Amino acid sequence: EETTFTNNAAEIAEAGTYPEAALALTEQSSMVRKIAVFLPVTDEQLQDETQVRGYIDNRLGFMIRQRLDSQIIAGNGTPPNLRGILNVAGIQTQAKGADPTPDAIYKAMTKIRVTGQSEPNLIVMHPNDWMDIRLLRTADGLYIWGNPSDAGPERIWGMTVSQAQAMTENTAIVADTSFMELATRRGLDLQVSNSHSTFFVEGKQAIRADIRVAFVVYRPVAVCTVTGI
Q: What does the pLDDT look like over 71-95, one tens digit per residue?
């Protein structure tokens, strides 16, 4: 984790002494965690419906990814949880206060640029909070984010807005994602067995899915939450 950034770059005369910069990296640990789920299925279901296995595989994969989204955003870091963005120590915050929500988001972007020395490229919001912005209107009733007959841009200040149900309502994340990494130790793995419990004598099979990942934020000040939106 980058904990010190001192830029002393400057102009020098011929044969002058180069100014010394400083970077300090603090060793941190981000444990690899497993997210898993399984579904019981009867032998008859697998035999009688040709597409059921593909359907189950797709849905189990979706369950894993949905839970992973939640962990990346709000995981508390207590084993076996990942530590999500909202619980990373050192991230910045910007209270909405009396500001319109777009103004508060721009102030968060400015904090990332000035204090974080980074360039924000993503905003994460709960769908209910994005709805409030999408429905903003002028005093004479015109929709600011576009006519209801159009899809409308999912952007604020030129940045993409990602809607996530796992996001805490009334809070938004503004971030430079180049300082984040989802390290995948093992991608989505699907296996099937009838050895679970009494499944063998009951004619059942267990289809399981899991993934092993670690989530890392290398520069916490490159992230800013906007509260009270």
A: 999 999 999 999 999 999 999 999 9
* Residue type at 144 in one-letter notation: I
DSSP β-ladder status, 204-217 and 33-42: antiparallel
Place of tokens 């949880």: 81
pTM of the predicted structure, to 2 decimals: 0.83
Cα 47 to Cα 67: distance, rounded to the nearest angstrom: 30
Which pair of structure tokens corresponds to residue 162?
Answer: 């990602």
Q: Do 220 and 1 contact (CB within 8 A), yes or no?
A: yes
Contacts 24+ apart (CB under 8 A), 186-194: 186/210, 186/211, 186/212, 187/211, 188/61, 188/64, 190/57, 190/60, 190/61
Whole-number Cα distances in Å, 107 to 68, 117, 144, 222, 229: 29, 14, 20, 13, 13
The single-letter code of the amino acid at 189 is D
